[in-house]
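Pasting two entries for a bug report.
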Amino acid sequence: MKKNKNGALEFSFAWIFAIIAGLFIIFLAIYGVTKFIGLENAAGNAESAKDIGVLMNPLESSFEALKRTMMTTPVETRIYTTCSNNSLFGEQTIRTSQKVYNKWSDEGVDVAFQNKYIFSKDPVDGKNFYLFSESFEVPFKVADLIYLTSASDKYCFLNSPNDVEQEIKALKGSIISPNENFFLFTNSVDCPDGSIKVCFKRGVRNCPIEVYTQSNFVVKDGKTMYYQGNALMYAAIFSNKEDYECQLDRLMGRAEELYKIYVEKSKFVFMKTGCDSGMGADLILLSNVMKNFQNSNDLSQIYSMSSDINTQNGNSECRLW
């Protein structure tokens, strides 16, 4: 670098090349670090989704009925749950995004499970999450339904019937926690500010979730979801219609296969012992109804048929379950 006759600075080619090369190296370094952080976040999100799925395993047991488990993440986390029914048993996928330096990272890859049925907001976010489960039976146990809520999402159950009230109290337990997110009241003015109202009585203003226990359906976001039993009622309360119907379709696919197994068991018992359960034809009929399952509106027929079959099984000399 030198001055010309007019006193202006002149840059040699070597200096210009050195500056450009230096800037390029700095750019590559910044890009590499950014890319590395992105890959680390993606790997961390995938691992987090897998860990969440594994943590749900203990819930898949009747011993955990009406018990809540708190799950705490190291940083604020968004949990995305997606249902797919494109295969025999379908898939439950989980993916996460984490808040790093006050900014949400890109969503991680989907981690799929064939044996999980999760009902929650999508996404649900926070650092503290509650999980509980109930079994789905038609009439024998088919699977455990898992409900996922954030401690920051407050649910206010208004005028709930006695059985629901007792279940919610059992879930809450006797220890008062600052992270509690389930509340039981008869008057909406008592609900915590910003809470999500779940109304079991008509006439409550600004109620986003209405439960009609006489007709067995839930209205949420203007959409109707039919249910049978409290397990599916909670599923409709905590999820959206698209995921709810998708999970029901998966559950019916699983139940259909189990009914086929019981048909074969009925034949085997008769062949070995001569004892006829008398349910073979009814089991085949119900499995076909489940195969043609369309939506939650079909639940009433399915539960009625399964109830009759359960009565037959209870009165049979060679019970199948």
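Entry 2 (this is the one that rendered wrong in the viewer):
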Amino acid sequence: MNNFLPFALPLIGEDEITEVVDTLRSGWLTTGKKTVQFENDFAEFVGASHALAVNSATSGLHLALEAVGVGAGDKVITTTYTFTATAEVIRYLGADPILIDIEPDTFNMNPEKLRQAIAENDNIKAIMPVHFAGQSCDMDEILAIAKEHDLKVIEDAAHALPTTWKGTTIGSISDITVYSFYVTKTIATGEGGMITTENKEYRDRMKTMRLHGINRDVFDRYTSDKPSWFYEVVEPGYKYNMTDVAASIGIHQLKQANAFQQRREWIAQQFNEAFADLPMTTPYVARPDDTHAWHLYVLQLDLGKMTVNRDKFIELMAQENIGTSVHFIPLHLQPYWRDRYNYQPEDYPVALDVFNRAMSLPIYPKMTDDDVQNVIKAVKKVSKEVLK
């Protein structure tokens, strides 16, 4: 293989391009009718009552926490095995994240560790499960625990479109769910995200806080039958709205979400079959009858059978022109979180072990069949070279 295969690339078609051009020619580029259409389409797609488009999943998580009343001195339980955005938004509000370890097979939040964290901490306000790689957490168990202790549940579903839990699409199960449309995700708007909820009060609060705490959208003020310059600032809000340019891409990406997932799943199946006899563990699927978004395909290397560590394996893959990544560097190993809360690497043994052996392969619908075979050939070649 002569050309380097990047770890991730979006699949953008002519429909997205045409819609963006239409938006540019319309003269209305910020939050407007295209954003509203995207919100309505998304709510219908996941079966939620309300959807709010935002400029990132990070801002969506921040708005969600604020809406449920998280503030200074509160605590929010989440997992150490996630991107820093999941925890940083908790700090935005002066609250503290309580990190817990993960299940060794799904890499999702461990409900037993969740119960333990609740027993050991006061002032817990909410739980933030992360649907790692596109496979749902055990939502029945998490919601039961939350109900038992009167806690709110905000799902970090950045990986989880169109994931299901026992046949129900993620997005209408808990108090609030937040998605990402970053360039590597199932559907991409470049930057962007979506919040869904069944609670109108939460929806109204997040809508107000999404745009400076103003009680009227700018699109409503300038395009209604009776346009008005008057508005009221009711809270010191944020600047988290999605633009119509981004929504124009999202409208057509969403139409392909199921097809994109099916292509990712097909690639995952090719990898599973090809790597079954290699010194590595392929991703575990807890519920085969549910939809796994396959945002990530994470191998766990059997380092005991290899002459190299994970980092060197990645270097060798790059020499074969295959881009890879690692998901994730656990939060408790990152300098800010480690130093602020005095974490030690061994505090979360499962996450630490997974991290040391984990390697994410390219898996996205823009990959050709030849690309898939080139990844397989590279993994097999490198595995053979480093086998003890």
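Dev reply: Rendering is fixed now. As a check, the viewer should reflect this: Residues 257-275 form the longest helix (19 residues).
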